[in-house]
Amino acid sequence: MGETTGRPAHLSSSVPDPWSVPVLPKPRRPHPKVVVKADLLPAVSVLSTAGLLGFPLAWLWSRLAPPQRMRVINDRGGLAPLELESWHRFDDLAIYGFLALGAGLLIGIVTWLLRERRGPVVLIAATGGAALAGWLGTTMGVSFANGRYEIASAPAVGDIIAKAPQIESPWIFLAAPLMTTLAYTLLTAWSGREDLGRRLG
């Protein structure tokens, strides 16, 4: 005796059951590709515009950074800082660091708002522009400060003069590009879209 099944014996096992629900394969969404050629010109604009922030960054630092009050100790122009005035060396560096971090954050957020150009090309341009702004801020800031606290005549021994603030660590210029990269990366992760929302622009 053969086994009793609900399907006639003359039907092949390859014939689908009319009562079964077909499972359709999920459509594959094409992965967004990195756009390079179309983003090159906007990237150049982002780099140059971000780099120009170095000038207001330098001017603002030269106005906020405190000078050191120094006493002239000999005829050769030797200087000695007054008590506690040497702490302003750290203050000058810290003030520039905070200003540079703020500039980098601003560059990262504004660049992210360029929705139709989001991607690695513009990110690299924004980081390069922030690095340029940081370099201009350190070099031009010291020049602005020297011009502001310029001594018109030679001081006498015992006089107290204001020494222009200085940026003693040139590596502080990296604060702006690091903050730009961090801000843009965090916004990218927060977005959660494969195309970063470019198609919605």
From TrEMBL:
InterPro entries: DUF2567. Keywords: Membrane, Transmembrane, Transmembrane helix. Pfam families: DUF2567. The keyword Transmembrane applies. The chain crosses the membrane at residues 38-61, 93-114, 121-145, 171-190. This is DUF2567 domain-containing protein.
